Amino acid sequence: MSVPRFVLWAVGNGFFIPRPGARMGWELMGIGGGSEVDRLERRLLHLSMLADPLSPFSGGTVGGRQVMVRETVRAVQDEGYGIDVMTAGGDGSVERSALGHLARVVRLASAAADTPLGDRAPAWGREALEWIRSQGRHYQLMHSHHWMSGAVAQELRSALGVPWVHSPWAMPDMVQEEPAVAEAMESQLREADWVVVPYPSFADRVLEIAPEARVRVISPGVDVSTFFQREAGPVLKALGQKQRGLLTVVGQADDGVRALLRDWTDRRRAGVLPADVVLLVAGMDPPDGDAQAWQQLGVRFLGTLTHRNLARYYAAAAVTILPARHASLGMAALESMASGTPVVATAVAGQASVVVPGETGWLGPAEDTPALLDAALTLRQDVAAARALGAAGIAHVAQHYTRTGMARALADLYEEIAAVPRTAPSVASAVRP
C-alpha cells in the first residue's frame, strides 16, 4: 500500500503524530482498541538484559547504560519505528506506557538469580523466542546493548533470521573483564552485522579487537527538555545552601569516587577547604551509612535520583566533578553541559570525547584526584569563567549531542542495514545535530 506523507494515528484514547520527515514504513491495520501497536510492520527488537529502561533512577550497578537505552528507544520511535525492548528481572509481563505509544518492555524471568551471569543467555533466549512466537512478532532487525544482551542476541539470531546491530558500550575497558567475558565480547564484535559505538575512540578499540567489524559511530543524545539551564535558587533553598557547591554524579562507584571522598575529607579536616563549600554526591549513599558525619564534613549524599530530580541538582552546582578512572558513556558530562554547569573530569574514554578542555570544562589525568579537586575549587571561585564554560557547554551539546540527531543517525543505519548486504570493513561517523 502507498504510504501517506502525513498520518494521524489513533492509539487507544490518544493520538500519535509522527515527527515531520519520520519514516512511516508501516501500515494502519485498524483504528481503536489500543492494539495497533502490535501490528506495526516497521518493528525492531532491542535487547537490554541488565539495564531496564523503565527504571526511573540514575546510578546503581549499570550506570548510564539504562539511560542510553531509554533515550535511544524513545527517540527512535519518533522516526516511525515500533520497538520491543527485552530486559531481565520480571515475570514476563509487558509494559508500554513509560516508553511511549510505539514501544513495549518485556521482562524475562526464566534465568534463576543463582545462575552465573554468563550462563543465563540460553534460558533468556528460549523465553524471548517463545514470547516472540506467541505474539506473532516479526522484526526488521535486533539491536543488543552490552555483552550480556549480545549473548542473548547470539541465541536468537538463527531463529529470527534478521540483521543484528550490537552496542558493546564498554569496549575500551575490555582488558579489565574476566577472560570468559572478554571472549564473549570478541565473538559478538566478529559476528554482529554492525557495531554501534558512541565515540571514535571506542571504534578504534573495536577494530583493534575485530578488524573485520563494521562500525558506526553515533553520538549519544541528551534530552534537552529535561536537562537545561535553570534557576538555582529553589534548589539551593531546599538544600539549605546559600551558594552553589560542587556536584559529583556516580554511575558506578569506582576508585575515582573513593579517592575524591578521601581527598575531600583530608582537606576538610586540615581546614584548607572553604568553609561554605559543599560536595553533593548523586547516585550513591554514604559508604558507612553515617550521613550526619559526612554532612559535618560538607558532603551530602543524594542517593539514587530520578532523571528529573538529578537535573535540578545540576542547577545547584557551580561545577560538576567526574572522577571516573575507567571508561564511561560520558552521559553525566553531557547532562551537566546541557544544564549550563561546567565539567571538571578525568580524561578517560567517553568523558575525554565530550569535554572540550578550556571550552566546556577541564580534563585531567585519571589518577590525579587532587588536581581534579583543585581545578573544581578554582573554577568555583571564578564565576565569569564558569559562566562562559557553561554557555559553551550548552551550545556544544545542542550542536553535537541531541536526542533527535541520535535518532536520525540510528534510523539511517537501520534502513541501510535492511537494504545493503555486508561487504568490506568500514568505520562511518554519524555525528550530527
Question: What's this entry about, in short?
Answer:
The protein has 14 helices and 19 strands. It is of the alpha/beta class.
List its traits.
433 residues, alpha/beta, Rossmann fold, 9-stranded mixed beta sheet, 19 strands, 38% helix, disordered N terminus, disordered C terminus
Topology:
Elements lengths: L8 E3 L2 E3 L26 E5 L9 E2 L6 H13 L4 E7 L5 E2 L7 E6 L12 H15 L5 E5 H15 L3 E4 L11 H13 L2 E4 L2 H10 L4 E4 L15 H7 L5 E5 L5 H16 L8 E4 L8 H6 L2 E5 L1 E2 H9 L1 E6 L8 H8 L4 E4 L4 H4 L6 E4 L4 H13 L1 H18 L2 H17 L6 E4 L4
Parallel strand pairs: 3-5, 3-8, 5-7, 8-9, 9-10, 10-11, 11-19, 12-13, 12-16, 13-14, 16-17, 17-18
Antiparallel strand pairs: 1-2, 4-15, 6-7
Describe the structure.
With 433 residues, this protein is α/β, with parallel strands linked by helices. It folds into 2 domains: 9-221 and 402-429, Glycogen Phosphorylase B (Rossmann fold), CATH 3.40.50; 233-400, Rossmann fold (3-Layer(aba) Sandwich). It has helices spanning 65-77, 121-135, 146-160, 179-191, 200-209, 233-239, 255-270, 291-296, 307-315, 331-338, 351-354, 369-381, 383-400, 403-419, and strands spanning 9-11, 14-16, 43-47, 57-58, 82-88, 94-95, 103-108, 141-145, 164-167, 194-197, 214-217, 245-249, 279-282, 299-303, 305-306, 317-322, 343-346, 361-364, 426-429. The strands form 4 sheets. The chain has a 9-stranded mixed sheet with strand order 6-7-5-3-8-9-10-11-19, sandwiched between helices. It has a 6-stranded parallel sheet with strand order 14-13-12-16-17-18, with helices on both faces. A two-stranded antiparallel ribbon has the order 1-2. The chain is elongated. Mean pLDDT is 81; it is low at 1-36, 58-62, 420-427 and 429-433.
